[in-house]
């Protein structure tokens, strides 16, 4: 029996390069990419995607839609790492730990959309708490996240590692219009009744993310506290291989969060920081924006899909 043919379309960007690196020594699949001279040839790209078993799209949104439209072979399965299809109902959301049965849905899906890097942390924290009724659907959620500059793609890497790197900013908050393209994705898959306020930033480090969500206990049910929120997350991820909820005694001992702590892995660490005196709780997620936030997640989804290939 032949091994599945996996085609990476757009393997020269930050996500595609890391997917290629993670897969290149695999013996259970055949990996295919286009030569440089063929990458902009629409006919050749269409031939390639229709000849593969699973296509991984590491493309801008418009190009990802074009690639999907070019598929005429019904046997081709797709993992889209762009944001083009993340809120589309006919695509399976590629966050295996998000809900019971989600890994099985991904394994059997024809079309899987990789989660965004920031949404992975936000949804990972919020969805279990929303579904358990511990946070009201109309709670005024605010999210702050700091990513490594690779989150900007090749432009960010060039700014910080190219000839003008000495002039690169050490920190910059962006998305000041409060219209970041990840916000609808967060709202939909976290189960929020209203749009959250999402404020992203880039730091002067290559990769890694710290994402935080502050909560005021006075806006929750009277019996909900930090321990309740932590217990819910711990139960939800008890069997998850790639998501760990830090025990409360360990989180209470922390003095800072390092966005680079899990770089090079496909893991995500969730923490709960309660302040009993002031009635506040801080939720946090730490993970690699190119790991669990992109390339690692794509490979995790690929592995699930290969079980049904």
TrEMBL record:
<comment type="pathway">
    <text>Amino-acid biosynthesis; L-arginine biosynthesis; N(2)-acetyl-L-ornithine from L-glutamate: step 3/4.</text>
</comment>
<keyword id="KW-0963">Cytoplasm</keyword>
<keyword id="KW-0055">Arginine biosynthesis</keyword>
<comment type="function">
    <text>Catalyzes the NADPH-dependent reduction of N-acetyl-5-glutamyl phosphate to yield N-acetyl-L-glutamate 5-semialdehyde.</text>
</comment>
<keyword id="KW-0028">Amino-acid biosynthesis</keyword>
<protein>
    <recommendedName>
        <fullName>N-acetyl-gamma-glutamyl-phosphate reductase</fullName>
        <ecNumber>1.2.1.38</ecNumber>
    </recommendedName>
</protein>
<feature type="active site">
    <location>
        <position position="117"/>
    </location>
</feature>
<dbReference type="InterPro" id="IPR058924">
    <property type="entry name" value="AGPR_dimerisation_dom"/>
</dbReference>
<keyword id="KW-0521">NADP</keyword>
<feature type="domain" description="Semialdehyde dehydrogenase NAD-binding">
    <location>
        <begin position="5"/>
        <end position="106"/>
    </location>
</feature>
<dbReference type="InterPro" id="IPR050085">
    <property type="entry name" value="AGPR"/>
</dbReference>
<dbReference type="InterPro" id="IPR000534">
    <property type="entry name" value="Semialdehyde_DH_NAD-bd"/>
</dbReference>
<dbReference type="Pfam" id="PF22698">
    <property type="entry name" value="Semialdhyde_dhC_1"/>
</dbReference>
<dbReference type="GO" id="GO:0003942">
    <property type="term" value="F:N-acetyl-gamma-glutamyl-phosphate reductase activity"/>
</dbReference>
<dbReference type="InterPro" id="IPR010136">
    <property type="entry name" value="AGPR_type-2"/>
</dbReference>
<dbReference type="Pfam" id="PF01118">
    <property type="entry name" value="Semialdhyde_dh"/>
</dbReference>
<keyword id="KW-0560">Oxidoreductase</keyword>
<comment type="similarity">
    <text>Belongs to the NAGSA dehydrogenase family. Type 2 subfamily.</text>
</comment>
<dbReference type="InterPro" id="IPR036291">
    <property type="entry name" value="NAD(P)-bd_dom_sf"/>
</dbReference>
């Amino acid at each position: 029996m032949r091994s599945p043919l996996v085609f990476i379309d757009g393997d020269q960007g930050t996500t595609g390069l890391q997917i290629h690196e993670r897969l290149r020594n695999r013996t259970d699949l055949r990996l295919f990419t286009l030569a440089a001279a063929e990458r902009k040839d629409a006919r050749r790209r269409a031939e390639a995607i229709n000849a593969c078993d699973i296509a991984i799209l590491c493309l801008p949104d418009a190009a990802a839609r074009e690639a999907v439209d070019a598929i005429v072979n019904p046997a081709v399965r797709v993992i889209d790492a762009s944001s083009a299809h993340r809120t589309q109902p006919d695509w399976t959301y590629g966050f295996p730990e998000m809900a019971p049965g989600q890994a099985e849905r991904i394994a059997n899906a024809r079309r899987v959309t990789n989660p965004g890097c920031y949404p992975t942390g936000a949804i990972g924290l919020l969805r279990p708490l929303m579904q358990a009724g511990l946070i009201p659907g109309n709670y005024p959620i605010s999210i702050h996240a700091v990513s490594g500059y690779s989150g900007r793609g090749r432009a960010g890497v060039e700014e910080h590692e190219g000839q003008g790197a000495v002039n690169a900013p050490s920190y910059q908050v962006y998305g000041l219009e409060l219209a970041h393209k990840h916000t609808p994705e967060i709202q939909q898959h976290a189960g929020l009744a209203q749009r959250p306020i999402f404020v992203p930033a880039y730091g002067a480090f290559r990769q890694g993310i710290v994402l935080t969500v502050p909560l005021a206990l006075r806006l929750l049910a009277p019996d909900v506290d930090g321990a309740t929120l932590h217990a819910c997350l711990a139960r939800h991820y008890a069997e998850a291989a790639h998501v760990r909820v830090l025990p409360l005694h360990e989180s209470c001992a922390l003095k800072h969060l390092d966005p680079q702590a899990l770089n090079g892995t496909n893991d995500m660490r969730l923490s709960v920081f309660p302040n009993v005196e002031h009635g506040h709780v801080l939720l946090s997620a730490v993970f690699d924006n190119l790991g669990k936030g992109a390339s690692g997640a794509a490979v995790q989804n690929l592995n699930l899909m290969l079980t049904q290939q």
